[in-house]
Structure formats: structure tokens, C-alpha cells
Amino acid sequence: MTSSEDEKAPPGLTSDDIPPDLWQACPECNQLIYAPDLEADLWVCVKCGHHFRLTVWQRLQVTTDPGSFEEWDHDLPLHDPLEFPEYPDKTQAAREKTGMTEAVLTGEATLDGISLAIGLMDLSFIGGSMGWTVGERLTRLMERAVHQRLPVTLFCASGGARMQESLIALMQMAKTSAAVGRLAEAGLAYISVLTHPTYGGVMASFASLGDIIIAEAGAAMGFAGPRVVELTGLKIPPEVQTAEFQYQHGMIDMLLPRKDIRPALHNILRWCTV
């Protein structure tokens, strides 16, 4: 370790006194960061501003009141309409890796004492892809929110529709969009928060339908991802599928660093629930 890294260690310790797994390297600038400091900074590099990808549990930690989350629809079954080869095994591996049963976690929580229905997607679970179970959980979340008169906040992160479920996965785009419509008819607020990355059928459906759409700084977003676009032979500027570009061109309402998202949600929810 260099002397500059020792300066990052807690008082009274050098970097050599700290186990290696307590250091994380920023993938953007390669700065070594002491893990507790990284958590205190909401998993954002203080040197370059890179936003580390969060698990749903970390996202709950930085967004909702401690101990307030109650999960809904935990036991919805896996849907395998095509009996796709090795799909159940892949899903089981994702469950063991993430501690989740599907690519979205849904339920009720409070934010500074304000009750809300909340959904959080995790890219680590089969790319955050949307199949029947994800679509069903999100639809039930919104329908239950209508019944309980709760505003809805969704944290989106996805590669798109789940290929192992084919047309059933694509049908979730229409189903979740219709559920958003029922929220609007009930006069309830829906806040969509786009995190890195949000692509495909998720971006083309409920993620883009929020009454207020917030994007986390540095997030990538679009319908077809860069590699898919390259296969078509088309050329698009690399900055087009960024939160910053989308904000500049009016596609999203707010572009915020992670530390400002919870205060912004508090203000929006307070306005919507008074």
C-alpha cells in the first residue's frame, strides 16, 4: 500500500492493518476505498463520483426507514412456459447468489414516516430481466397500492424482458403499463427512479411511465443496449443512452446524485400525500 492509501485508513491504523476485503477499488478511477467509508458515502466514490451498483437491501437501507419494510408476494412461483433448458437451475443459482426469489422485491415501507408501496429491481438476478413473476409482482404492487391508497416508488434496473419466457415476458410490458394506468385513475402518485442500467422492455413500459421520473447520476438507459444497436450496423453517439443526455433532452424530470434521491422522494411524497 502507498502512503496515500494509508491516509485513507481509520485513525491509528495503516492500510496494512486492515484486511484486504475491507478495501474496494473504484471501477472508474481505481481509487482504493475503505469499505465502511464507502458505505457511509452511500456507495459513491468521493474521488470521481462513480455510483457503485446497489443490491436491493442496500437500496432499502439508503431509502427507507430502518425496519419499516414489509415484503409482499414473496412466494409467487417460477413461470417456465417453454420449459427452457436449464432455466430452473439458472433461477436457483440466482436465488442463492442474491438472497432474492426473483429480480424484483416489492412491499410496503415508510420514508421519514410516510407510507409508500415500493419495488426494487436487482441486476444481479438474471440481469434484472422481467418475466411473468416480475410483471405479476409489480402489477400486484400497484393494485394493492390502489386498494390501500399508497403512492408507489419503483427503483428500476434491468436488461429487459426475460428471453427464457419469450412472449409471456413481453406481455408483462402491457400488463404493468395497464397497472400504472389504474394508479393514475385512482389519483395516486407513481415515481419511477432509473438506476444503472435500465434497458429493454422495462424501459419501454413501466419505467418510462412515472408521474415523475428520476434518474440516478451516471445511469445508462435506453431500449436496445449498445451491443444490440451495434449488430444492426447503426451508429449512435455513446452519450445518447445516458441519464445526463436524457435529462438534457427532456426525457426525464430530475437527474440526481444518490445522496439527493431520498430527500427528493421525501418532498415529492409529502406533496402527494398531504
What does it look like?
The protein is an alpha/beta fold and 274 residues long. The protein folds into two domains: 1-52, no CATH class; 53-273, Alpha-Beta Complex (2-enoyl-CoA Hydratase, Chain A, domain 1). Helices cover 36% and strands 18% of the residues. It has ten helices and nine strands. It is globular, with a radius of gyration of 20 Å. The relative contact order is 0.11.
Supply the key terms.
274 residues, 2-enoyl-CoA Hydratase, Chain A, domain 1, seven-stranded mixed β-sheet, two-stranded antiparallel sheet, 10 helices, disordered N terminus
| Number of separate strands | 9
- Distinct helical segment count: 10
CATH topology of the largest domain: 2-enoyl-CoA Hydratase, Chain A, domain 1
Please name the fourth-level CATH homologous superfamily of the largest domain. 2-enoyl-CoA Hydratase, Chain A, domain 1
Q: What is the CA-based Rg, rounded?
A: 20 Å
Helix content: 25-40%
Global mean pLDDT: 91
| Number of separate domains | 2
Coarse structural class: alpha/beta
